[in-house]
Amino acid sequence: MLLSGKLNKIRTFALLLIFVGIGVMYIGFAFPKLMALFFILGILFVLASVGIYFWIGILSTQAAQVVCPVCDRHTKMLGKRDQCMHCKAVLSMDPKDAPAPADKP
């Protein structure tokens, strides 16, 4: 469930950048002569994460909100194809991807 939907994938990447940044800063304690370099590098990772969170927040406000036909919950879609954030069902706004109607006898 953590990586379902484009929005959540980007948010997960930004969270990973925060942990990497803190880890790089922590590694700086092992190398006292290079501590400032590791600290600056870690800060850059964290600032990149802040930028990504800001960007994804702007994208999230512009994303189309749809109701998933599988789980009947509201989810946001980026682009023409995306996954439901709750049940990972593939959603599409393109009519070509719509399921074929069943033949009625």
Automatic annotation (TrEMBL):
List all membrane-crossing ranges: 12-31, 37-56
Please indicate if the UniProt record lists Transmembrane helix as a keyword. yes
Among InterPro entries, the record links this protein to: UPF0295
Keyword list, A-Z: Cell membrane, Membrane, Transmembrane, Transmembrane helix
Q: What is this protein called?
A: Zinc-ribbon containing domain-containing protein
Q: Can you name the source organism?
A: Laceyella tengchongensis
